Hints:
Strand order of the largest sheet: 1-2-3
CATH superfamily of the largest domain: Classic Zinc Finger
Helix content: 25-40%
Amino acid sequence: MATKGQKRKDKDRIVLKAGESQRPNGTYDYRWTGKDGKRHAVYAKSLEELREKEAQIEHDEFSGLKAEAGCVTINEMFDLWCQVKRGLKNNTFENYKYMYNLFVRPNFGKKRIYDLKKTDVKRFYNHLVDVNSGRTEHPNHAGDLPPLLEASGKAYMTVLTGRFHVKEVIGRTVILHGDPDDFHTQPSGNAGIKLACGVICRTG
């Protein structure tokens, strides 16, 4: 324990900041008084991880978020973002939500914000690369497309995909269903009645 006037250090002789301490088992904690006047604490296996959490706490305090709500998940933060976000075209906004609900919400989105590490994010990105390159099983069929949003009976969509080439779909059909795909029920995802269909052809 440091005496008066001495700087506190951990077992590796690294100077600890105010509120930081190393526990007997080698892990770290940071304690602070929130705007509500109550004492709070976060824990980490390493000093680097602890300071990342400290930086997030400072950011959240500045942004007006409740840093003490350690049980908040990525999904809950995204839902909050959806409620306050403005300035996006409706089609763009709906596509954001579609992609999030498809790839993030089922598993990664359930993680708590303060449990999240950089390695978790990198692992998630690598999984997305594997999925879209065909190295792992995809949750939907190669021909499944995002929801089509219409206005006054007209709709337009441009989709980029790595799951098939143009020459592979010439002569095949496109079917529009009345409801969203649930990405579970086979073969049509419980997407409701068929509204329209057409044949993919070359033009020009």
